């Protein structure tokens, strides 16, 4: 069975890059009928970081990812780690090191002066004497002294690390008994039965240490997939300046979960030149060995493009539901179908859609100066009056096509082009020259309101 996990450090919110690795892990587990676990890496061991977990679960819920089983908190697993440290001590694979901080600093200084890489010199590795007084021991693991450690990475291929370049007998437990990061990650992944570790490639350099722990404890190694980071256009790591990093901000900004997940899966993974992936397709097609080797670039236009695709193809019922979060209540509006059809093609986000809707539903408070200048000419007054009269004389005005018909008649009578009526009418109805189709706008607000808005402009 494939078991994957998402193991965020508690930052109080779910990072967009985190959601990407969570999604990939989720897809791979679900595709194989496996399990997708959640572990909070609150290694300061002071308390369960439940608030952080809640923020993650909330974001998962919004996008529709679900984890299996209980949430594991590293802060509740201290005893487990201590047992495993003891195991290594008992089997001679780890040892107590009594080197003081001053000694360690002195060693570092010497090594740096000799232009060597600072590393612990294994002085307590085979120590059998009496421990120096007043010195609290840390626990170090016996790392290989030479050779290489090869990470067989499903994305990057075999990555070879020279032991002499990167390893020493590193600390697995501090003098106060608390275990260190790479030790707990390896122990947790092994005990939680994780078979496939999919994570950011900023963790690749931790992997040799974790492999040392796996081997010392006799655990079977998982498969590793290190996913390249998301970069901005300048090739730097994505930061708050490039776009929101908190997943829930994307909800606030009016993105749909479908678009966001589609966007994220394509950041670093592809299937031919296909751009649109439903969850079903992702589940059918995603394979971590197809993850790209190079960093992917965050591209807001792409996200907007995907979002408008999903908005355009969304049912009006669903749109109604989503718009409520943005303060637009349409459930009992009798023209909601026409309204949503008129705006869904024009908005990149739900926020834009909400703005468009409000611009239709709420009478403009004033008229855009530039629009007035461009759209309202000398002859416009007469044209609008003729149109108003034609409206008053028509009955059965319901659909956009009914209003369109009246416009056609007036245009024919006055022998003018459509623009001559369209532009001033647009200014009257919406206060500006952009927005949804006028036939739809009139059908939505009705004859009375249309006449009222025309009058308001004429008075202006
Ligand atoms: N806690 C780590 C992070 O948030 C992830 C560790 C891992 O996936 O192994 O970056």
Briefly characterize the structure:
This protein is mainly alpha-helical and 460 residues long. It has 19 helices and 12 strands. It has helices at 16-31, 50-63, 78-90, 101-113, 163-166, 181-191, 207-216, 247-252, 257-266, 279-285, 300-312, 316-324, 336-343, 350-361, 369-375, 380-393, 400-414, 418-430, 438-459, and strands at 3-6, 35-40, 72-73, 94-97, 138-141, 148-153, 157-162, 171-173, 196-200, 223-227, 230-231, 296-297.
Kindly list the characteristics that best describe this protein.
single chain, 460 residues, mainly alpha, Rossmann fold, three-stranded antiparallel sheet, 19 helices, 12 strands, 11% strand, elongated
Structural account:
There is one protein chain. By secondary structure, this protein is mostly helical. Among the domains are: 78-227, Rossmann fold (3-Layer(aba) Sandwich); 369-459, Arc Repressor Mutant, subunit A (Orthogonal Bundle), CATH 1.10.10. The protein contains 19 helices and 12 strands. It has helices spanning 16-31, 50-63, 78-90, 101-113, 163-166, 181-191, 207-216, 247-252, 257-266, 279-285, 300-312, 316-324, 336-343, 350-361, 369-375, 380-393, 400-414, 418-430, 438-459, and strands at 3-6, 35-40, 72-73, 94-97, 138-141, 148-153, 157-162, 171-173, 196-200, 223-227, 230-231, 296-297. A 3-stranded parallel β-sheet has the order 1-2-3, covered by helices on one side. Strand 9, helix 7 and strand 10 form a beta-alpha-beta unit. Helix 16 (380-393) crosses helix 19. The radius of gyration is 32 Å and the shape is elongated. The model has no long low-confidence stretch (mean pLDDT 95). The structure holds glutamic acid. Glutamic acid (GLU) is lined by residues 7-9, 41, 185, 199, 203. Glutamic acid is lined by residues 7-9, 41, 185, 199, 203.
């Amino acid at each position: 069975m494939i078991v994957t996990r998402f193991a965020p450090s508690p930052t109080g919110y779910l990072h967009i890059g985190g959601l990407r690795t969570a999604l990939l892990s989720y897809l791979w587990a679900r595709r194989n009928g496996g399990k997708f676990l959640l572990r909070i890496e609150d290694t300061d061991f002071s308390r369960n970081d439940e608030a952080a977990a809640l923020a993650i679960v909330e974001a998962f819920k919004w996008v529709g990812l679900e984890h299996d089983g209980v949430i594991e908190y590293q802060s509740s697993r201290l005893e487990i780690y201590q047992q495993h440290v003891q195991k290594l001590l008992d089997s001679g694979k780890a040892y107590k090191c009594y080197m003081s901080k001053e000694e360690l600093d002195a060693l570092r200084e010497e090594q740096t002066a000799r232009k060597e890489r600072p590393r612990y010199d294994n002085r307590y590795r085979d120590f059998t004497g009496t421990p120096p007084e007043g010195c609290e021991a840390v626990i170090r693991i016996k790392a290989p002294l030479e050779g290489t450690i090869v990470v067989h990475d499903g994305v990057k291929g075999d990555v070879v690390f020279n032991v002499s370049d990167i390893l020493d007998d590193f600390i697995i437990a501090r003098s106060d008994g608390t275990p260190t990061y790479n030790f707990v990650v390896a122990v947790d992944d092994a005990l939680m039965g994780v078979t496939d570790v999919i994570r950011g490639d900023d963790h690749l350099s931790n992997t040799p240490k974790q492999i040392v722990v796996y081997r010392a404890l006799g655990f079977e190694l998982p498969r590793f997939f290190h996913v390249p980071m998301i970069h901005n256009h300048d090739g730097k790591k994505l930061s708050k300046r490039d776009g929101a990093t908190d997943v829930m901000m994307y909800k606030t900004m009016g993105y749909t979960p479908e678009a966001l997940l589609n966007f994220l899966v394509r950041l670093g993974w592809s299937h031919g030149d296909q751009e649109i992936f439903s969850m079903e397709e992702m589940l059918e097609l995603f394979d971590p060995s197809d993850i790209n080797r190079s960093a992917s670039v965050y591209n807001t236009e792409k996200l907007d493009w995907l979002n408008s695709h999903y908005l355009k193809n969304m049912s009006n019922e669903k749109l109604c539901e989503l718009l409520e979060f943005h303060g637009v209540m349409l459930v009992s509006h009798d023209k909601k179908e026409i309204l949503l059809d008129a705006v869904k093609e024009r908005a990149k986000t739900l926020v834009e859609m909400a703005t468009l809707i409000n611009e239709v539903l709420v009478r403009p408070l004033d008229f855009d100066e530039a629009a007035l200048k461009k759209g309202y000419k000398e002859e416009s007054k007469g044209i609008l009056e003729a149109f108003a009269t034609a409206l008053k004389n028509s009955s059965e005005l319901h659909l956009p096509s009914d209003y369109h018909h009246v416009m056609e008649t007036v245009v024919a009578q006055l022998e003018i082009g459509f623009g001559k009526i369209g532009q001033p009418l647009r200014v009257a109805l919406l206060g500006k020259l952009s927005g949804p189709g006028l036939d739809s706008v009139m059908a939505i607000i009705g004859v009375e309101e249309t006449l009222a808005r025309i009058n308001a402009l004429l008075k202006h």
